[in-house]
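Notebook p. 47: complex prediction with 1-deoxymannojirimycin.
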Amino acid sequence: MILVKNATETDQPVSKTIRRHVLSPLMIRNEIEAAFKISWHAYRTYAWGYDEIKPMDAGKNNRWGGVAVTMIDALDTAILMNMKEEVIDARQWLLYNWTFEKDHFFSVFEMSIRVLGGLLSSFELTDDSLYLEKANHVGKLLMPAFENDHLPYPQVNAFQRKARNGYTNVAEQGSVQLEFARLAFLTNNSRYFTVANSWKRIFHRATHPTSLNGAHDSLHEYALKLYLIGNAQDAVLRRGYNTMRKRILSHLLLRCGKNFFLVEKNANFMEHLACFVPGMLALGIMSNATDDRDRDMAAAEKLTRTCYELYNTPSGLAADQFMVRTKCEGCSCRRHVKDYKFLLRPETIESIFYMWRLTKKVKYRIWGYNIFKKIRKHCRTPFGYTALENVYSMKKMNEQPSFWMAEVLKYLWLLFSEDNTLNINDWVFNTEAHPFRKFDWRLFSFSSES
Ligand code: DMJ
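Predicted complex, C-alpha cells below:
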C-alpha cells in the first residue's frame, strides 16, 4: 500500500492499482467507453427505437411514449466518446424512422430535458443541422403546454396538438426554460424566448428553497444555470442565485460532526437527488457567481464527502432515500434508509466531476472510479446495466434508465478528461447532462423590453 497525496482529506492508503488507474485517465476512459458500448449495443440489438431496454431479459418498454429516449439521451455521450459508427447509425435512424408526432400525452419536463436537450447538444457538438431540425420539431410540438405565457402544463399530446393540466411540481415547471432559451437562440424564434421567460413567474420559488429533493431539485439548479447560459450578464439572476444559496446553507444544511446533510425545511429527509447541490456550489465558485466563495467551498467539500459516504453500504452503492437522525445540532448523525433502491442516478458523480474540475484533488477521481467499479460489479446484466432493488441484498431490478448513458457515463468520462473538453467557461450542462454553449442573453431585461 502507498499513500497518494490529496487522496482523501486524511491521506488514507490507496492501493497501487487505484493509483495506476487514477494516474492513467486514458485507461479509465477506455473502461467507461467499454461500459457505454455494452449498454448501447444491447439496446441497439434488442430495443432499438424503443424508450428503454430491460437489461435482465432483453425486453423493452415505451414508458415515455415511444420516442427512442435512450438513443437520443445517450447520443451526445457517443459523440463525445467519438463512436463514429454508433453515431452514424443513430443519425440514419433519426432521419428515416423517427417522429415526435405521437398520439400520447408526453411529460413536457422529461421530453424537454432528455429529448429536446439531447438533440440540441448533439447539434452543438457536431453542427449537424439534422439535430437542430429535430429539436425544432420537438419544440414546436411542445408549445401547446406554454400557451398564454404561463408555466408549462405537465403534459402534451403532440399528435392532437393538445396540452393537459394535472399533477405537476416546481421542478417540472421551472426546469425546461434553459432548453427553450438555447433553442430560441439557435432558431431565432421569439416564441421559444417567451417560454424561457416564463421562468420569471417562478423566480421567487426558485430563490426560496424549502427542499432540494425530487419535485424541487432542478428548479434550483436552473437558478444558477439560466444565469450562466446568458454569459453571466443578468444581475437579477445573479442576486437570485445568491439569495438561494444563502438560504440553502442557512436553512437546509444539517451539520453532523464532520458531515453535512441536505434536508427539507420541515423534516430531516434527504434523497440521493439532492447530491447535485455540492456540484452546483462548485460551479458557482468556478463561474464567479457566488458572493461567498469560502463558505460555498467548505460546504461543497463536506457535502460531496457526505454524498460519497452514502455509498458506504454492503454493495458500495447508495440507497435512494433516507432520514437523518441526530440528538443535537453538531452531534454525529445516523442514517435511516427509507428507500433501499440504487437507481443508477448521476448526482454524486456529477458533483464529484465539478469538484475535480474546481480543486484537482486526486481523491475525487478515486471516488468516481470506486463508484464505477461497484456499478460494474453489482449492476451488470446480460443486456446492459440495471438499477438495484436493494443496496444491501444487491437484488437487481430490470431497468436501465436513460440517464445511465446520458449522465452517469458522461460525467465519469469527463472526470477523466482534460478541462478543455467541454470547458465550463463556455458550456452549461442541462439537468440531464446535455451541454449547451453559453450565449449573450438577459432573461429579465428581455422581458422588460417585450
Ligand atoms: C435525471 O433525469 C435528471 O437529472 C433530473 O433532473 C433528476 N432526475 C434524473 C436523475 O436522477
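Notes: The chain has a mean pLDDT of 94. The first helix runs from residue 16 to 22.
Next step: compare against the earlier run before touching the bench.
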